[in-house]
């Protein structure tokens, strides 16, 4: 496995969106069929760099997201590999029917990118804070759904998606994240990654929650509790084998997501476990609430997404064993 | 009151709105300066004279409505409502702070005086159309005003709302188009152009269209609104040729969508807006 964990909980000074842009610059250089469509948000994710390098293959659809996804469907049908970007709320809720029919049902490999997932939308506030974006895409039978943690993971998985024949929805953190992995780390679609071994409980996380899970593992260790930590960037298809093995090994699961709890990563995992290996599980995530405006650290606390919340959930689930 | 005096008062109000808008965004240090400042003169005309509202009774049934469909302009609305007495102006300096009632995008459940929740561009247009229809169905004679951006007008929903409003002959509805020529990624002409122009589009959709050449002149906006009120049988679109960032020293020349200037730049901009207000007060 060719990834290297840093795990020092240090904020990355770079912008995570650069992971996407770097991947795209490489992809577009290697393959003339790779194109990018944006929705008047190039300045937000730096895809102006793509426009500069490949003006004939980078398009701005303006503030018209549903049309952009429909256009991407046509681009894909014509033989191109189309990536399309907007903020996560628009890239999911606003385009859902187009994504469902023109992309999903039509079996066209369009790769939809939603930036500012969950609380990372911070100062843009409630109207811009997607807690349900992945939930929508989880309901489309053939979509791949991905929530990446940092630059290295975003870059690697973006490159893998370009070669993926299925459509996808990928969350893209713009800023406000921690460097989890060394640059150059490689990841696969559909795989989870064991970051720390443990035997009492398994913490399964993705995106910004991976670092919180790592911090929780350290706090639990100090209390004499041994926690296994898994990063699960792909929510669909799930790495069932890894989850079932962890359930077998530790007998207790805590899922951690920057998303509504009742319809995301945790729900997918409990659906799997209920059928194949019933296991006590606790859920860290947004508890049936709307978003709101504020700094990310305030929001993490407000929605109970912090390591301390994971620690409490771990203790609770262990007691339920 | 004679018209000249009224126009003077509206110019003063617009300058106050500009100053407060800067102070509000400055309290947080960053935000959507550009699209807030371009709307100041229109807000002054609406809330300074034209609109029939009661700050003490913000949800009064017969009030005139205003929907800021380009909801990222929240600060200009907060400045206007604060100056109008809906709440103490100081309250607005909590923009985007934890637990605030003044979020970056206008929210009907958070801020007193905000009629509809916006922020997802395009949605405010349909909401305003529905409010205009709903008021008419209930026999009210009040009016609904909505403001959309020229970038926002890329959205199909703006035009879906426009066709509905014309079909139902909603002459109690007026749409301001903040035609400042800029959207987020740059000039509208480069990002996504509007064919024969936004006025021509609204005209083709069956609206009465008024082109206001200089939208930093409150009198031209005022006259256009009077024409809209007098227009029967069709909704009116008022195309406002504005300047994005107008009156913000660090944003006016660039037309920036959002700004995070230095402390010195904030001080300079606020001082300039204070001076501009003094100058307008002393004019005659
Ligand atoms: C549906 C939707 N897509 C994208 C955005 C992000 N966004 C906010 S403002 C903006 C540009 C708006 O340009 P314009 O309507 O011209 O506003 P103005 O220049 O007057 O500020 C964009 C793309 C949004 N708020 N809603």
Kindly state the mean pLDDT of chain A as a whole number? 97
Tell me which CATH architecture of the largest domain in chain A applies here. 3-Layer(aba) Sandwich
> How would you characterize the largest beta sheet of chain B?
5 strands, parallel
Strand order, sheet with most strands of chain B: 1-2-3-5-4
So, the CATH homologous superfamily of chain B?
Thiamin diphosphate (ThDP)-binding fold, Pyr/PP domains
Shape, per Cα inertia axes of chain A = globular
Considering DSSP H and I runs of 4 or more, what fraction of the residues of chain B is helical?
40-55%
Overall mean confidence score, pLDDT of chain B: 97
Taken together, the total number of domains of chain B comes to 1
> Which spans of chain B have pLDDT < 50 for at least 5 consecutive residues?
none
What's the domain count of chain A? Answer: 2
Question: Could you state the CATH homologous superfamily of the largest domain in chain A?
Answer: Thiamin diphosphate (ThDP)-binding fold, Pyr/PP domains
CATH topology of chain B, what is it called?
A: Rossmann fold
The string of secondary-structure elements of chain A, in order, is: HEHHEHEHHEHEHEEEHEEHEHEHH
Oligomer: heterodimer
Beta strand count of chain B: 5
Radius of gyration of chain B: 17 Å
Give the tags.
heterodimer, A: about 325 residues, alpha/beta, Rossmann fold, 2 domains, seven-stranded mixed β-sheet, five-stranded mixed β-sheet, 12 strands, about 40% helix, globular, B: about 280 residues, five-stranded parallel β-sheet, 10 helices, 5 strands, about 45% helix, binds thiamine diphosphate
Please provide a brief summary of the model:
The complex is a heterodimer of chains A (321) and B (284). By secondary structure, chain A is an alpha/beta fold. Chain A is built from 13 helices and twelve strands.
């Amino acid at each position: 496995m060719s990834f290297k964990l840093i795990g020092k909980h240090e904020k990355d000074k770079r912008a995570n969106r650069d992971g996407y842009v770097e991947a795209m610059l490489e992809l577009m250089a290697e393959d003339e069929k790779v194109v990018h469509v944006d929705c008047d948000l190039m300045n937000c994710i730096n895809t102006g760099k793509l426009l500069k390098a490949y003006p004939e293959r980078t398009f701005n659809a303006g503030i018209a997201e549903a049309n952009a996804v429909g256009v991407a469907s046509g681009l894909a049908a014509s033989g191109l590999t189309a990536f399309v970007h907007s903020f996560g709320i628009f890239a999911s809720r606003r385009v859902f029917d187009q994504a469902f029919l023109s992309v999903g049902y039509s079996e066209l490999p369009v790769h939809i990118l939603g930036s500012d997932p969950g609380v990372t939308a911070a100062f843009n506030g409630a109207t811009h804070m997607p807690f349900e974006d992945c939930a929508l895409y989880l309901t489309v039978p053939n979509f791949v759904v991905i929530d990446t943690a940092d630059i290295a993971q975003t870059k690697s998985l973006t490159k893998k998606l370009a070669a993926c024949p299925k459509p996808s929805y990928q969350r893209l953190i713009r800023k406000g994240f921690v460097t989890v992995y060394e640059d150059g780390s490689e990841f696969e679609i559909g795989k989870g990654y064991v970051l720390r071994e443990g035997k009492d409980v398994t913490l399964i996380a993705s995106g910004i929650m991976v670092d919180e899970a790592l911090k929780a593992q350290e706090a639990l260790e100090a209390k004499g509790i041994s926690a296994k930590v898994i990063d699960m960037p792909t929510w669909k298809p799930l790495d069932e084998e890894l989850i079932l093995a962890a359930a077998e090994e530790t007998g207790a699961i805590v899922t951690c997501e920057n998303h509504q709890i009742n319809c995301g990563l945790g729900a997918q995992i409990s659906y799997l476990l209920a059928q194949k290996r019933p296991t006590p599980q606790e859920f860290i995530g947004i508890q049936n609430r709307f978003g709101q405006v504020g700094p990310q650290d305030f929001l993490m606390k407000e929605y109970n997404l912090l390591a301390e919340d994971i620690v409490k959930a771990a203790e609770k689930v262990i007691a339920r064993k | 009151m004679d018209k000249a005096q009224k126009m003077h008062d509206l110019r003063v109000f617009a300058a106050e709105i500009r100053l407060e808008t800067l102070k509000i965004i400055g309290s947080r240090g960053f935000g959507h300066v550009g699209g807030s400042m371009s709307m100041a003169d229109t807000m002054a005309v609406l809330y300074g004279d034209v609109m029939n509202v009661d700050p003490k009774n913000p949800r009064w049934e017969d009030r005139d409505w205003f929907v800021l469909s380009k909801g990222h302009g929240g600060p200009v609305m907060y400045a206007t409502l604060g100056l109008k007495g809906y709440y103490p102006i100081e309250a607005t300096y909590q923009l985007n702070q934890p637990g605030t009632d003044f979020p970056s995008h206008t929210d009907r459940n958070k801020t007193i005086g905000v009629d509809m929740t916006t922020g997802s561009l395009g949605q405010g247009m349909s909401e305003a159309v529905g409010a205009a229809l709903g008021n008419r169905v209930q026999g009210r004679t009040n009016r609904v005003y909505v403001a959309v951006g020229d970038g926002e007008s890329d959205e199909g929903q703006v035009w879906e709302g426009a066709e509905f409003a014309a079909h139902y002959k909603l002459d109690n509805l007026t749409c301001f188009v903040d035609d400042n020529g800029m959207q987020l990624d740059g000039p509208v002409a480069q990002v996504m152009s509007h064919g024969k122009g936004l006025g021509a589009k609204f005209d083709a959709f069956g609206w009465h269209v008024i082109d206001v050449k200089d939208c930093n002149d409150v009198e031209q906006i005022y006259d256009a609104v009077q024409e809209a009120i007098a227009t029967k049988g069709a909704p009116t679109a008022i195309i406002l040729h504005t300047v994005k960032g107008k009156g913000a020293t660090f944003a006016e020349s660039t037309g920036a969508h959002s700004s995070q200037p230095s402390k010195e730049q904030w001080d300079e901009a606020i001082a300039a807006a204070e001076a501009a207000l003094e100058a307008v007060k002393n004019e005659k």
